[in-house]
Amino acid sequence: xxxxxxxxxxxxxxxxxxxxxxxxxxxxxxxxxxxxxxxxxxxxxxxxxxxxxxxxxxxxxxxxxxxxxxxxxxxxxxxxxxxxxxxxxxx
Length: 91
Hints:
There is one protein chain. By secondary structure, the chain is mainly alpha-helical. Strands 1-2 form a two-stranded antiparallel ribbon. It has helices at 5-13, 18-24, 29-36, 44-54, 58-61, 75-81, and strands spanning 2-3, 65-66. The two termini are 22 Å apart. The longest helix has 11 residues, at 44-54.
């Protein structure tokens, strides 16, 4: 499962709601939810528009965080630690 933790954090940092960003790329909140949770793929023009809106680099915003089942980490820990925990599990 791919999770765009950087994108979620940037949206929150900017004081926006997911619905606000969805409108900018002409998607419903449900469609945007599927995109941001890795259940669908962003189109290149959508990534560019979102990066412009949020003021962050596209490459950073859309760097996927791969969540491996059974790591023992909470979603919050995974969002903070990111790639450092992708290949190892908590003891």
